[in-house]
Every structure is written in structure tokens, then in C-alpha cells.
């Protein structure tokens, strides 16, 4: 079961009751706090969806938070007005389960003395992998998985928009994959998040099957797909 704090966060982000009706329509929330050019969509695993849109864009597109519409019609209306949809992120959250451990792997939190080892890890990874994972040594919390003295897997975590969520990224070097090290590192940083009073959040692209498999093996459950939409000039 998705932790209650996670559900509460997303309910507040989109407003209560913003879900698909029986006939497939979805209600919108127009919110000044979203700025002038912001839209987001959350499509949950159960098929319900929620849309939050900045008032300026609501006026521009003719989308009203008082007139329910089908989600396909909302997407079409956004597209007609040149509003680009970014690729969706899969949102995963860890469900309570006792007995997780790092097994035989050496996994620990990294400190200032590990900077050089992390830089060697970063240099051994492809730029594409580093960009997709967004694992940084200067993030508030960083964990590493070791092969001897070498870091071959790392995960880092940031607080998500002053929320109760800890957003994490993870990357394992190609030669170290398939040994359970990514699962061990994700488990360790997720444990740290919970001990710090945060709910660990794992995001990845919906077509990244390996990352989806890692999330599930580390005890995470999918909430659904989240999309952020901005106008082209952003």
C-alpha cells in the first residue's frame, strides 16, 4: 500500500476529488500558485487522473475547472495551443516490508573523504547515464555501493519541493549490474529517508524497463505516471 503521506501530498497538489468520473471525464484544478505557464497531469494505476493548470493557461486554452472533460480532450486542447508535454515519469514509493538488507554488498553513506572515489565513478559512467540518473555528490544524501575500494553504484537524494518526499536517483556501472547492488544501495538510501522522516520517491521514464524492475525489486510500488507540461518558450 502506498504510504498515506504520499497520497496526502498528491491530493493537496491536485486538490481533493480531482479524479476521472465514470464516463471518463476528469476535473481540473486552476491554481495561482502554479505560476503562469504550468500544467501537470497525474494518471494513477487505477485509471483515475488529475490535472492542475495555471489560470493563465486555463484562460488561453479554454479549459475550465468547472466543466469536467475527458482526459483525451484535455490533451488535445493543450496540443492545439502549442503546449508541449514532457515524457512522463513513473512514480514509485516504497511499501512497508521488514527484513531488507544489503546482503553481502558493501554499502554505506558517502562523506567528504569519498569525493575522489565518486569522481572516478562519475568518469566511468556515460554522460547519458549520469544525466538520466541525476546522482550528484553534492546532494544532501549520497550512498555508494563498493567493489573493493571502487564505487560501482551510487544513489543520491533531495527533498522534493519542501514536501515529505525524498526524491532519489540511482546509477550502477554496466560491469556491476545484475548482482543486486543497485537494489542494496536503493534500499539503504530509502531506509535513511524513512529514518529522517521522509517517504522515499523513485522516479524513472516509463520506457526504462531496467529501472522499473529495480524499483520493484527494492520494494517500491507504482502510484502512476506524472507529467509536467510547459509552453514551448519555457
TrEMBL record:
Superkingdom field: Bacteria
InterPro entries xref list: Acyl_CoA_acyltransferase, GNAT_dom
All copies of domain N-acetyltransferase, residue ranges: 105-234
Protein known as: N-acetyltransferase domain-containing protein
Amino acid at each position: 500500500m502506498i504510504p498515506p503521506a504520499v497520497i496526502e501530498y498528491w491530493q493537496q497538489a491536485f486538490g481533493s476529488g480531482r479524479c476521472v468520473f465514470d464516463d471518463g471525464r476528469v476535473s481540473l484544478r486552476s491554481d495561482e500558485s502554479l505560476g503562469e505557464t504550468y500544467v501537470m497531469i497525474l494518471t494513477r494505476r487505477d485509471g483515475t487522473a488529475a490535472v492542475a493548470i495555471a489560470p493563465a493557461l486555463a484562460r488561453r486554452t479554454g479549459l475550465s475547472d468547472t466543466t469536467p472533460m475527458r482526459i483525451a480532450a484535455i490533451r488535445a486542447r493543450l496540443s492545439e495551443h502549442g503546449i508541449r508535454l514532457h515524457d512522463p515519469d513513473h512514480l514509485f514509493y516504497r511499501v512497508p516490508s521488514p527484513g531488507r538488507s544489503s546482503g553481502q554488498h558493501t554499502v554505506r553513506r558517502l562523506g567528504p573523504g569519498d569525493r575522489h572515489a565518486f569522481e572516478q565513478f562519475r568518469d566511468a559512467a556515460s554522460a547519458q547515464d549520469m544525466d538520466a540518473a541525476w546522482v550528484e555528490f553534492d546532494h544532501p544524501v549520497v550512498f555508494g555501493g563498493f567493489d573493493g575500494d571502487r564505487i560501482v553504484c551510487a544513489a543520491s537524494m533531495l527533498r522534493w519541493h519542501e514536501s515529505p518526499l525524498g526524491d532519489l536517483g540511482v546509477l550502477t556501472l554496466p560491469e556491476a549490474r545484475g548482482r543486486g547492488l543497485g537494489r542494496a544501495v536503493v534500499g539503504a538510501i530509502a531506509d535513511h529517508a524513512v529514518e529522517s522522516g521522509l517517504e522515499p520517491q523513485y522516479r524513472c521514464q516509463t520506457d526504462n524497463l531496467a529501472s522499473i524492475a529495480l524499483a520493484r525489486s527494492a520494494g517500491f510500488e507504482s502510484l502512476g505516471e506524472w507529467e509536467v507540461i510547459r509552453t514551448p518558450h519555457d
